[in-house]
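hey m, so remember when u said the tokens were messed up on ur end? i reran from scratch. heres the input so u can diff it against urs
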Amino acid sequence: MARRNIYIIIVAVLIAAAVINGFMPKPVPVETAPVVRAPLMVTVEEEGKTRVMDRFVLSAPVTGTVLRTVLNVGDTVTKGQTILEIEPRMSAVLDPRTRAEAAARVEAARASLNAAREDSKAAKAEASYSVSELGRIKKLHSDGYTTEERLEKSIADERRSRATLRSAQFAVTVASYELDAAKTTLKYSGTEPAKRGNGPVKLKAPVDGRVLKILHKSEGAVVAGEDLMELGDPGALEVEVDVRSEHAVQITRGTKLLLERWGGEQALKGVVRVVEPAGFTKISALGVEEQRVLVIADITSPRAEWTRLGDGYRVEASFILWQSDTVLQVPSSATFTHNGSRAVFVYKDSTAVLSKVTLGHSSGIMTEVLSGLTEGEVVITHPDDEVENGTKVRAIE
């Protein structure tokens, strides 16, 4: 009887222990992350595309029949090379008014050429000054009399002046060809029959470059002004990115950026050249109207690293708004608002301890901690409603 009573007592104790254990609160499983000191970068990421800086569209100067071209997209052309030929339609006799209009267009084209030449002279003088200024700033920088920012600005100014000079020189070339095109109407007038048998009109490449697009490959009829071919230099690329207007106001000329997921093994570096002052409306993939702004950037990485890039290629641009090499930071998912201030739960001795913090910059994934935490502490990420100050918790892998 005594032994049976002992067994009954033992079973009763076990049942009572199980009941008590069932009603006792269990530790809440939580995910944790350490407070670390590491580099942090705040960026604005948008999708963009490359484009040739100086694009030239060749159009038909006369109405007639364009002959089949032997060129293909990607072929290299040199300045002055004949790339298209047009058999002009038999010219009509010009009446006095039409002849006067054609003569006026010739004079207008001549005036445009003179203006382009003057702009080229001004751009050349500016480029010469930028080169000498860059040399002076480099000397001052090497002697320690100026800042790195001043040197970078001088380098950017010198690059911009060279690009402006190149565009001005291209404009002179284009204006000269536009003058030739304007003279064509008078040259092939029906009142000058002796000149009608001189053969096809030859269109020559205005610059050295490559064929970007052929709009009229086969022989066929064209009208004056119809686009026939696009030329450009794929080695002179820029990046066009449209960003939301609220992000555009944070981006300025000189802002650095990284070009990622363009197909190469490593990200390319770039710098913003222009933030256009006018925005436009764009419908997002979710059907929401957004105000967007075009940002134009130059690629500063060596040309050898992006030789495979061409016109209209997709890139993902990350504009660097702020960065630091050593920042105390926590996952953004660990922070929350408590009584009007920011706070985190610190994981300490299997207990959640509420700690108020002061936060700084945020990349979206990681957030800078200005005060309230120390390096090496462990915080709870994604805390739910079950976690409160003093709650017993259990870290999960």
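this time it looks ok to me. The helical segments are 2-23, 96-142, 148-187, 245-248. if urs says something different then somethings off w ur setup not the seq
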